[in-house]
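chain below, 357 aa
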Amino acid sequence: MGKVYKIGIIKGDGIGPEIIDEAINVLDATASKFGFDLKYEEFLLGGAAIDETGVPLPPETIAGVKRVDAVLFGAIGGPKWDNLDRHLRPESGLLALRKEMGTFANLRPATVYDELINASTLKADVVKGVDIMVVRELTGGIYFGDPREYSKDKAFNTMVYTREEIERIARVAFDIAMKRDKRVCSVDKANVLEVSQLWREVVEEISQEYPEVELTHMYVDNAAMQLIKEPRQFDVIVTGNIFGDILSDAASMLSGSIGLLPSASVGGKAGLYEPIHGSAPDIAGQGIANPIATIASAAMLLKYELGEEDAANAIDSAIKKVLAQGYRTGDIGAFDAKEIVSCSEMGSIIANSISKS
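prediction:
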């Protein structure tokens, strides 16, 4: 009998249930192909949790995510809950969940599929072959530093990083680089910020533990420019919270469609894997959502959480194969489409591709 993994499932709101169902479809086909078993347990979060329990993050969900090996998450939120007090809104539940899970590293890949190269707003010869992983520190930096203050005449925030926080995010980046092209670019503003001086020093120290990985440094303003000018120069980018927030969003648009890109929040016992897009309540229930980002998130779960690298690669290969065959959901249908398919059809086509490979 093969290994058995426990996977938490959070479908969430809007298109969340639709895209998660297709990711599970693909995961089941992959598990069958590669000889391991996946046991699913579903939890509530966001608007769905508010409607059923009155809070965005029920205690049962907190307890549940702590007994599984990884969590696959769809999306939360919608206008139905926008007027609630901030602490009761769906987004507050997600922030609290990440804290409870101890996730401190946000992984945001930016991959340009050859089959969709015309979807990018940049020239094809600039973005062809782009495959970047942005590793963003998620729990420190200026978003969480104290002291902080606001008044009508003056406001300030404090950027703080400790040696321990930098060490652990750097190790995540170097570990990922060892599975890729063994190149890390650390992005900071060490020419003007003392906190970035410490960041650079500590990343240099950690790099000594990874002699096979090439380390370079880049100021954040130059990094933003280079992402647009020559994105192929990057393999793994590691950076702090606010810089990573900005650069990962910029990198995500190299692909041309937000419906294609996965992400993960890792660092605790179990990681949280999710598409970068939102709940899209305006198209929920219509069967037209693009499940590829969620399916790619499931592949990341297999690779980075469970160590099932061959299975993860099979999912990524199936996505590329299906796109090469001309299958498109409506959001990417303008780019070399041979057939426009529904959300469930896209999931089934990718799952079948894996089963028959």
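The chain has two domains: 1-103+257-357, 131-253. The chain has a mean pLDDT of 95.
thats it, cya
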